[in-house]
Design brief:
272 residues, alpha+beta, Transferase(Phosphotransferase), domain 1, 2 domains, five-stranded antiparallel beta sheet, two-stranded antiparallel sheet, globular
């Protein structure tokens, strides 16, 4: 299409914008993700793109979420780490989990990183990080890139989102992104959890985060070993080792944290 505009970012070929739609390479998991997006649309949830089928090239077609994105530059804009952004993200996630709670995937549903649905699970976004968010006029429009949607407990999805936004990633990673107020992380985590509606202790939740992040690092290595080039690039960029560093640094959180490394370009799981 002559009016295609390449969109920034992405580890798997990126996406193009055509008018008010986005075209992305489809995967075997895409029909299952589209079923989730159609459910969210029917439920009146407006913080996600609409699934519009496939184009003549076999690419998935999604509605375009208007607004600004953080892009590839470092550090990120200061508002990314504001309390207001933290509250908006927590409310978005709470509303998502409420909207998707009534969704039961098809028995043959396929998810990019696997996982089988059972009663008590939801379909989480699983990558609701700053690099996948759109903002307009200071308001969170929603999150794009639903490729990693899959069955999880609500706490599992909550854990990754808190990890990305509080943020709880390794010090050298978040410092490169512009966050150095490490003494504020317990307060920010409590604010995030209270806004979402999770009332457990910070220490208990930090352990959930550590398990979630460890599983992510293991998953990256497993899929890379199976030959996926996008995951192999993550290994080359040290994404798995940065996640392991975060797990070590979160030991004993919210107690005293270890001294951080010098900032250097962060490694993140960003895909358009």
């Amino acid at each position: 299409m002559s009016d295609e505009r390449r969109m920034a970012g992405g580890n798997t070929g990126g996406a193009v914008r055509v008018g008010d739609t986005v075209r992305r390479a489809a995967g075997r998991w895409t029909p299952s993700v589209h079923a989730v997006l159609r459910h969210l649309e029917a439920a009146g949830f407006d913080g996600a793109p609409r699934a519009l089928g496939f184009d003549e090239q076999g690419r998935e077609v999604l509605s375009f979420l208007p607004g600004d994105v953080v892009g590839d530059a470092r550090p990120w804009p200061a508002w990314v780490h504001s309390d207001d952004a933290l509250r908006q993200v927590a409310r978005w996630l709470r509303d998502l989990h409420t909207a998707v709670a009534g969704f039961t995937p098809a028995p043959d549903a396929v998810w990019r990183e696997g996982g089988a649905w059972r009663p008590g699970l939801i379909i989480g976004h699983n990558d609701a990080a700053p690099y996948n968010a759109a903002w307009s006029g200071g308001r969170l429009t929603g999150f794009f890139d639903w490729d990693f949607a899959a069955p999880v407990t609500p706490e599992w999805d909550l854990a990754f989102t808190a990890f990305a936004w509080v943020p709880l990633h390794a010090r050298h990673v978040v410092a490169a992104e512009g966050f150095t107020a490490f003494d504020q992380r317990p307060r920010r985590l409590r604010l995030f959890l209270d806004t979402y509606g999770w009332s457990g202790s910070l220490a208990a939740f930090a352990e959930i985060v550590r398990r979630r992040v460890s599983a992510s690092a293991e998953g990256i290595r497993r899929v890379a070993a199976a030959g996926d080039p996008a995951y192999q690039r993550m290994i080359e960029h040290g994404v798995d080792t940065a996640l392991e560093t975060a797990v070590r640094e979160l030991a004993g959180f919210p107690g005293p944290e270890p001294a951080g490394d010098e900032p250097h370009p962060s490694h993140r799981r960003d895909r358009t």
